């Protein structure tokens, strides 16, 4: 796609008025507006990349005016930025730094912070001094795909000269920070003079193997110049950029047998990563489209993928190179293949992964030695897998980070292919990549984050559209899990997923149908890479005395309240075992969990609830059976025995009729337990959560009924 000029005079005025009304000045209002325009185009800026600034004045409490630089703060995304996303820094102290010959990163960051107007602001961008040292009022910086296709050539300067003449300054590659800011400012000043002497105006700067800057007197001028400069680059590229980040995300139901190989990959990577970090499980983001498949099938893919990242700061997300796997055996995506062929493929993956880890460690050791051995190695695992004929897989500690990796990888592929169409893709070299990967200021962007207890766990909840299902989904989501809401009624599942927000998804599934389960799990694998916890919660209470019950009714109760749980467990176990395939050490099983919603009826049967209670009693036995048979594989099986919860099974009408029948108030009926308190759906959700965290518990039943002597397990 060609980058379009999205500036609208009308919108910019409305935006300006809206933000002025909120107390911001016009410069900041329009800075916010055009930053968002840049940030909304993934061909220019992706996930927190790029940065923008404006030089303006600030009036202090005494009525004195100060020159300030508002520059993008770390942690903000240009696409959704607010005025607070451009922290305000006193400009003059920054300009004084130009006189220094050296400035350490620590001193630079300290100076940025000392000069913040609002001490609560985030850290200003690592490229703050570059913005400060340039004389222009508005400055925009992007990592445009088209521009990088040219800037990542060995003769980039020569091509840029041809495209831009004297309109842009060309800055050789230097790592961001003080040195780059100084060099860029010097070259800029010379180029500006030269442009002036030719009666031209300097519109921007190309940073070789890094990105592009534009500047102007107004937000509009700077923005339009960015688009103009990028469009010029697009014009000379024989291959047209087609960065489509959205369609390859969609699950294609024609893609069969994902369970044959994807969970294996996830299990293998998860086990390796846990050896090198505090992360225990990883989540996948799979991308498969015609474009990506074509790329993955290139003869020289291995060699191409070794060349490096499109712009250096991508390295902290994707590592310097992906891991290229072997083509899948035969037509695995359409038909099952022989086990022996699949085993060979698995073995090959294992060898390639070990080699990747080995290579990464030696890349680190070599570069670290050159730096005086002061760096601490990051985990050596790949972040991107490419499977020829299939597509790519982004790997993260959660779905969000995996998607971010996949987006950046798609951008890398577009840059690489377009660069190859005009010459040779030759990005920043391995030493410079290392410098950026291990630069303390880049590492700070990732943060030393503490992972929530269920981070990386993929959790599927059945009956998720119901009251209890929703509470379970919310509780697990709050604790960092990836959520799949399954329900026969898609709309209610969708509502629950939306309530969870983030990456939660909804799938319509009749859990009594093996076909539906199979399709649902295929989609789960495509979306997340596998599964860790099944919360088998769906059920229906069928009433009637056993003597008179219709066969069909009894059978349907057995189907939904017993067999469905079994089918779901079998399918879950297949994935869990695949994640642990080729496991040779007893203590290394990733394992997983089965959690069932069993009713009080299993322990304390009630008159007229036979069809339901008998199925639930058998479900309790099923839970124990799985605990016995799967314990050695670190697969735990537990259940919750909940009673008298307001839900689809016990609705307000039933509560009313039962309390009338007992001659008590509804409140007394609902709190008729030892604790004299109504038991809420949230309490049930908490019980499931607790069980999921009880690492040494299996075969257990946790009662959530406020205390009921007759239903005490015995
Ligand atoms: Zn940059």
Number of beta strands: 18
Oligomeric form? single chain
Biggest sheet: strands side by side, in what order?
A: 3-2-1-4-7-6-5
Let me know the average pLDDT.
92
The major sheet is characterized as: 7 strands, mixed
The end-to-end distance, rounded to whole angstroms, is: 68 Å
Radius of gyration: 30 Å
Share of residues in helices: 40-55%
What does the overall shape look like? globular
* Share of β-strand residues: 5-15%
Q: Please state the structural category.
A: alpha/beta
**Poorly predicted ranges:** none
Which small-molecule species are bound to the chains here? zinc ion
SS field, number of helical segments: 25
What's a concise summary of this model?
The chain has 714 residues and is of the alpha/beta class. It has 25 helices and 18 strands. α6 packs across α9, α10 crosses α21 and α18 crosses α25 (681-693).
């Amino acid at each position: 796609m060609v980058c379009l000029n999205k500036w609208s005079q009308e919108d910019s005025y409305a935006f300006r008025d809206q933000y002025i009304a909120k107390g911001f000045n016009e410069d900041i209002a329009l800075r916010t507006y055009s930053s968002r325009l840049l940030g909304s185009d993934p061909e220019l800026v992706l996930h927190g990349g790029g940065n923008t600034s404006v030089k303006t004045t600030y009036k202090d409490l005494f009525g004195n005016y100060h020159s300030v630089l508002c520059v993008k703060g770390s942690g903000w995304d240009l696409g959704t930025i607010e005025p607070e996303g451009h922290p305000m820094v006193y400009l003059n102290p920054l300009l004084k730094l130009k006189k220094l010959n050296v400035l350490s990163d620590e001193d630079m960051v300290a100076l940025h912070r000392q000069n913040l107007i609002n001490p609560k602001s985030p850290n200003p961008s690592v490229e703050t001094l570059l913005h400060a040292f340039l004389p222009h009022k508005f400055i925009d910086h992007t990592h445009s795909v088209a521009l990088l296709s040219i800037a990542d050539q060995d003769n980039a300067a020569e091509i840029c000269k041809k495209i831009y003449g004297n309109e842009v300054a060309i800055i050789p590659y230097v790592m961001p920070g003080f040195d780059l800011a100084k060099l860029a400012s010097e070259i800029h000043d010379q180029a500006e003079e030269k442009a002036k002497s030719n009666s031209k105006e300097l519109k921007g700067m190309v940073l070789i193997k890094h990105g592009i800057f534009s500047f102007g007197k107004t937000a509009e001028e700077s923005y339009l110049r960015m688009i103009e400069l990028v469009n010029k680059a697009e014009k000379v590229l024989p291959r047209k950029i087609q960065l489509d980040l959205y369609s390859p995300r969609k699950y294609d139901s024609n893609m069969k047998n994902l369970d044959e190989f994807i969970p294996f990959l996830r299990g293998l990577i998860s086990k390796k990563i846990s050896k090198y970090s505090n992360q225990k499980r990883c989540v996948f983001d799979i991308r498969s489209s015609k474009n990506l498949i074509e790329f993955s099938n290139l003869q020289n893919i291995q060699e191409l993928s070794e060349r490096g990242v499109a712009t250096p700061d991508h390295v902290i997300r994707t590592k310097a190179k992906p891991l290229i796997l072997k083509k899948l055996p035969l037509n695995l995506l359409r038909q099952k293949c022989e086990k022996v062929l699949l085993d060979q493929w698995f073995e090959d993956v294992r060898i390639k992964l070990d080699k990747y880890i080995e290579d990464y460690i030696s890349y680190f050791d070599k570069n670290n030695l050159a730096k005086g051995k002061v760096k601490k190695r990051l985990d050596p695992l790949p972040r991107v897998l490419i499977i020829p004929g299939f597509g790519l897989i982004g790997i993260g500690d959660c779905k969000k980070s995996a998607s971010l990796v996949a987006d950046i990888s798609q951008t890398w592929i577009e840059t690489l292919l377009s660069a190859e169409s005009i010459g040779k893709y030759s990005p920043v070299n391995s030493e410079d990549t290392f410098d950026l990967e291990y630069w303390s200021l880049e590492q700070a962007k990732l943060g030393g984050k503490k992972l929530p207890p269920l981070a990386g766990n993929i959790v599927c909840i059945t009956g998720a559209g119901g009251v209890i299902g929703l509470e379970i989904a919310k509780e697990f989501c709050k604790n960092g899990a990836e959520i799949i809401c399954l329900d026969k009624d898609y709309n209610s599942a969708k509502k629950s997923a939306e309530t969870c927000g983030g990456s939660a998804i909804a799938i319509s599934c009749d859990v009594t149908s093996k076909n539906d389960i199979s399709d649902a799990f295929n989609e789960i694998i495509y979306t997340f890479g596998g599964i860790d916890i099944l919360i088998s919660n769906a059920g229906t209470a069928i009433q009637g005395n056993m003597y008179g019950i219709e066969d069909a009714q009894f059978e349907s109760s057995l189907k939904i309240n017993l067999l469905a749980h079994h089918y779901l467990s079998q399918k879950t176990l297949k994935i869990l075992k695949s994640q642990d395939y080729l496991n040779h050490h007893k203590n290394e099983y990733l394992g997983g969990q089965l959690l069932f919603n069993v009713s009080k009826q299993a322990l304390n049967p009630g008159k007229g609830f036979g069809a339901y209670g008998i199925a639930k009693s058998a479900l309790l036995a099923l839970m124990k059976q799985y605990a016995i048979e799967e314990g050695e594989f670190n697969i735990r099986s537990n259940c919750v025995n909940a009673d008298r919860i307001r839900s689809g099974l016990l609705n307000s009408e039933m509560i009313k009729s039962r309390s009338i029948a007992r001659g008590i108030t509804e409140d007394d009926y609902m709190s008729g337990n030892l604790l004299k308190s109504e038991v809420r759906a949230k309490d049930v959700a908490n019980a499931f959560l607790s069980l999921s965290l009880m690492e040494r518990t299996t075969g257990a039943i946790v009662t959530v009924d406020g205390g009921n002597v007759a239903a005490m397990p015995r």
